[in-house]
Amino acid sequence: MQNFKQTDANQLLSELAVHALLHHEFRRLLTANKTLSAQQSNELLNKWLKPKLKNVRYRTIKKPLKALIQQSKSHQASLFSLLEQCAITRPENKQPHLDSYLLLINEIEKKLGLTVLLSDAHNVDLSHDANGCLLSVLSADLNQHFDGHNALIEPISMLFRGPLSQRALFLGAIYANQTFSYQVMYQDDQFVRIQLELA
């Protein structure tokens, strides 16, 4: 019985971490330069997490949640990194699609050295970073692609602009992913539009 309770607590902490990271991602995209300093990230996540300490739903994870917040207050620990570890650590259950999606986006951003944009198809800024690469998720609201259990329920369209070498890195990251695959909807010398779906 104790093992079941521990499993539920781990799952709850993991789900809370994913929602916190998603909140962080949306707020980062709303900033002028699409970036947040380590201190800004800690403050943003702290502000979002603190009310959860008083929420009855998170009573079973109050101690680890409090410990996370305390660690980040020293400014020596990145709350974002700590939450990433909480989201990844779930050996008992298959990782929800939303977790995998966030990790995939993070991997692509690191490989290509860019920031993934979020925009509906009609308003995407095709001239963004004209001398570099552009990668935009074509959606007005990312939440509509996932259900209440963080499972993918609707494919995600993505638009990439850049040289073929960078395009290969982008598509290669998805190809190597165990959760997702893609279909090419359109491509030319500059652009490729894909539909991200479950493998």
What does this structure look like?
The structure is a single chain. This protein has 199 residues and is of the alpha+beta class. The chain has two domains: 2-88, no CATH class; 97-198, 2-Layer Sandwich (Hypothetical Protein, Haloacid Dehalogenase-like Hydrolase, Chain: A, domain 2), CATH 3.30.1240. Helices cover 46% and strands 15% of the residues. It has six helices and five strands; from the N terminus they run αααααβββαββ. Strands 1-2-3-5-4 form a five-stranded mixed β-sheet, covered by helices on one side. A hairpin with a 3-residue loop joins strand 4 (180-187) and strand 5 (191-198). Helix 1 (2-30) crosses helix 2 (38-49). It is globular and about 55 Å long. The model has no long low-confidence stretch (mean pLDDT 84). Pfam families: DUF2913. InterPro entries: DUF2913. This is DUF2913 family protein. It comes from Vibrio agarilyticus.
Q: Widest sheet: strand order?
A: 1-2-3-5-4
Mean pLDDT: 84
How many domains comprise the coordinates?
2
Beginning-to-end CA distance, first to last residue: 35 Å
- CA radius of gyration: 18 Å
CATH architecture of the largest domain: 2-Layer Sandwich
CATH fold annotation of the largest domain: Hypothetical Protein, Haloacid Dehalogenase-like Hydrolase, Chain: A, domain 2
Shape summary = globular
CATH class of the largest domain: Alpha Beta
Give a count of the beta strands, DSSP E runs of length 2 or more: 5
Biggest sheet, in brief? 5 strands, mixed
* Beta fraction: 15-25%
Helix content: 40-55%
**Secondary-structure-derived class:** alpha+beta
Helix segment tally: 6
Helix and strand pattern: HHHHHEEEHEE
- Low-pLDDT stretches are none
InterPro entries: DUF2913
Protein name: DUF2913 family protein
Pfam families: DUF2913
